[in-house]
Design goal:
about 725 residues, mainly alpha, Isoleucyl-tRNA Synthetase, Domain 1, Tetracycline Repressor, domain 2, 4 domains, 4-stranded antiparallel sheet, two-stranded antiparallel ribbon, 29 helices, about 70% helix, Zw10_middle, cytoplasm, transport, centromere, chromosome
């Protein structure tokens, strides 16, 4: 029973051993032969895959090259047939193919550079042909460039538009559309329109704005539309905005109808907005420059110069709105409000700015004009100033000369006397006519302010204040040399400043109740400027006085101290010095005559004469020895001063009226009586001098001190008992 089982098991073992050896043989075969063949196959597969990729790439490149070549061939065919849109599209295809080829990294072909050059050449060729076509459609006839921009050259400018479609073209489609569409496809439309826009601005739009007499007119023929210009006599120097807008609108209407009303499609790359609106594109390119030109050369000039015309400006605003609406309808403008309309609507601000600028310019012109052209001002004279409407409250002033309340309401004093009607008036004098005009300008500007809007009123008020502050800075600087050298101009400038200060006292009060509420609460005043103007006038005149005083003292310094008058040469020098001083004072008296107010004139000349007398007195009193002949000659010199000194006082042109002031010399010359007492001493004996002294109570004692009288006695008289007795009485 066991043996069969064992035999079957042994057979199985032998079968397994055979199978195992077969497996080993198979394994060895696989390892030795199949693995090798497999490696070879994988290598071959990898190589084939790479070759396939390379071939696919080459195939795609060749395909693109074929596309490029086909596109260029079709472009050439289309260009010959003048199918510009198709040609442009083929050129764009070629450019796209080349761009794809160039974008492949690690794949560089020498042919690409040649293709790039070829594409550039063909692109320029296409643009040249399109440019030629464009030039035949829109023909400019321009004046020679040497002529520059003038009315004559503008009249010779013409624009011929060969875009009027014939019946055949209407069927086939107008050439204009294909040319412009081709430009759009090539991405050159904006550049071409920009160049056209610059020509349009330079030769048509700007001349129409700048020259009021230039008028556009149109002419339509069978195949051409012509835009020409003619010059007509303008009714005004500056054309009104309405006329300018109409002329510009006509030009845009012509362009819209015959040139720009063409529907265009954007290239496929710019899918955002398929349709191109030519008018809008041109508008974007030129509107900013055109609106600036319209503002600077048209609207600025149309801003009214006085507030009464402001209401009429509503027409200009309305006309500007209509002009912009027309341009929007033609699609030259987008929906937003432009700078042009904003400028027109902001007229109040521009009016105020323009008015203020004009006021300051006019004021500065007056300040830099000649000072010596004068007008006479008297308390009775009324400068041509505006009559203000009755405010119903506050002041009743109507002229700046004399405040009305003071003129009408008499002031009762205890003794029943009344103030003169001229108490608060400016004394008679001469002022520069330019200053009179300056004050008229100030009054007119403030009167303008009363009728203006609040903002404008404030601006005008402060421009008047600025005007006076400008006077303070400009006049002393601009006329500095003349004011230092010429006494008459210094006197006129003094009067000018006092005149302005006088009017500024009441100027703010006169307008206080007529200006805007902002100013009525107390800001509307000019009183704070008054001290500055008075100081300005006085400083200038006092500086001139110091110059004259210096000249007097310099002349008297050549008198050799008035000593040794018995020496002929010394006497001649002293006499000459005194004569020169009198001549100088007479000359001053002439140049200040009828210029300075009488009281200022007399004080000024009195002060200068007093300077001369004081110098002469101090020199004579200081002498230690005066002989009888010296005394006689000194007396002669002093008599010249006393006789001729009063004659320098000629404040008025009429000689008979000047005697009053010549008799009042002691009032204006402090040392006049002292000088006369000195003359008495020079001719008196000892007893007469003692009598004049009268124990310190006589006229001599009123003018000289005891020490000065004693010094004079010692110099005049020899040392005797009589002199000693006389000296003893002087104490």
């Amino acid at each position: 029973e066991f043996l069969p089982s064992m035999q079957s098991a042994e057979e199985l073992v032998s079968q397994v051993d055979g199978l195992s050896s077969n497996i080993d043989l198979l394994k060895a075969g696989i390892e030795n032969e199949v693995q090798r063949d497999l490696n070879v196959a994988v290598a071959e597969f990898t190589e084939l895959k790479q070759q396939l990729e390379r071939d696919t790439l080459v195939l795609s490149v060749l395909k693109k090259l074929q596309e490029f070549d086909t596109a260029i061939k079709e472009y050439n065919t289309a260009l010959l047939e003048k199918k510009y849109v198709a040609a442009a599209q083929q050129l764009e295809k070629a450019r796209s193919s080349l761009k794809t080829l160039e974008s492949r990294k690690g794949f560089e072909l020498k042919i690409l550079k040649a293709l790039g050059r070829e594409l550039t050449v063909q692109m320029q060729n296409m643009l040249y042909h399109l440019g030629e076509e464009w030039q035949t459609l829109a023909v400019w006839k321009l004046p020679p460039s040497k002529e520059g921009s003038s009315l004559e050259s503008a009249v010779r400018t013409e624009l011929h538009l060969y875009t009027v479609p014939s019946k055949e073209e209407e069927m086939a489609g107008p050439p204009l559309a294909s040319v412009l569409q081709a430009f759009a496809v090539l991405g050159e439309l904006r550049t071409k329109l920009k160049a056209f826009g610059q020509l349009l601005l330079k030769y048509i739009l700007k001349p129409l704005i700048s020259y009021p007499s230039l008028q556009p007119f149109t002419e339509e023929q069978a195949d051409v539309f012509i835009l020409r210009f003619k010059s007509e006599e303008p009714s005004l120097d500056d054309s009104s905005p309405m006329e300018v807008f109409d002329k510009i609108k006509l030009v845009f209407e012509v362009l819209h109808k015959y040139l720009l009303n063409v529907p265009l499609e954007q290239p496929a790359e710019q899918e955002k907005e398929r349709r191109v609106i030519l008018a809008e594109l041109l508008g974007d390119l030129i509107w900013e420059e055109l609106s600036d030109c319209l503002i600077q050369n048209c609207l600025v000039n149309s801003i009214p110069t006085n507030s009464s015309k402001l209401e009429q400006y509503i027409e200009v605003i309305k006309c500007t709105e209509e002009f912009e609406k027309a341009l929007k309808d033609m699609q030259f403008l987008k929906g937003d409000t432009t700078d042009l309309l904003k400028y027109a609507r902001n007229v109040n601000s521009h009016f105020a700015n323009k008015k203020c600028q004009d006021v300051i310019v006019a004021a500065r012109s007056l300040m830099t004009s000649e000072i010596h052209n004068t007008v006479k001002i008297t308390p009775d004279s009324c400068v041509a100033l505006p009559r203000l409407p009755d405010p119903g409250a506050g002041d009743d002033l109507q002229t700046p000369k004399t405040p009305e309340p003071l003129r009408n309401d008499t002031v009762s004093l205890e003794n029943g006397t009344k103030l003169s009607q001229y108490t608060f008036s400016l004394p008679t004098c001469r002022i520069s006519s330019s200053v009179e005009q300056l004050m008229e300008l100030a009054y007119q500007t403030l009167l303008e302010a009363t009728a203006s809007t609040d903002q404008c009123c404030v601006q005008l008020f402060y421009s008047v204040r600025n005007m006076f502050q400008l006077f303070y800075d400009v006049v002393p600087t601009y006329h500095k040399e003349n004011l230092q050298k010429l006494p008459q101009l210094a006197a006129i400038h003094h009067n000018n400043c006092m005149y302005i200060a006088h009017l500024l006292l009441t100027l703010g009060h006169q307008f206080r109740y007529r200006l805007t509420n902002i100013l009525c609460v107390g800001a509307a005043t000019f009183v704070d400027l008054v001290p500055g103007f008075r100081r300005l006038g006085m400083e200038c005149f006092l500086a001139q006085m110091r110059v004259q005083k210096g000249e007097i003292l310099e002349r008297l310094s050549s008198a050799r101290n008035f000593s040794n008058m018995d020496d002929e040469e010394n006497y001649h020098a002293a006499n000459k010095a005194v004569r020169q001083v009198l001549h100088q004072l007479r000359r001053l008296g002439k140049v200040w005559q009828d210029v300075l107010p009488v009281n200022v004139y007399c004080k000024a000349l009195g002060t200068l004469l007093n300077t001369a007398l004081t110098e002469i007195i101090s020199r004579i009193v200081a002498l230690e020895d005066i002989s009888a002949e010296d005394a006689d000659r000194l007396y002669s010199i002093c008599r010249t001063m006393v006789e001729e000194g009063p004659q320098i006082f000629t404040p008025l042109l009429e000689d008979n009226k000047n005697k009053k002031y010549q008799e009042e010399v002691p009032v204006y010359v402090q040392k006049w009586m002292t000088f006369k007492e000195l003359m008495i001493i020079l001719q008196a004996n000892l007893q007469e001098i003692v009598d004049q002294w009268a124990d310190g109570k006589g006229p001599l004692a009123a003018e000289f001190s005891a020490a000065e009288v004693k010094s004079l006695i010692r110099a005049l008289f020899q040392n005797t008992e009589k002199r000693a007795a006389a000296l003893a009485k002087i104490k």
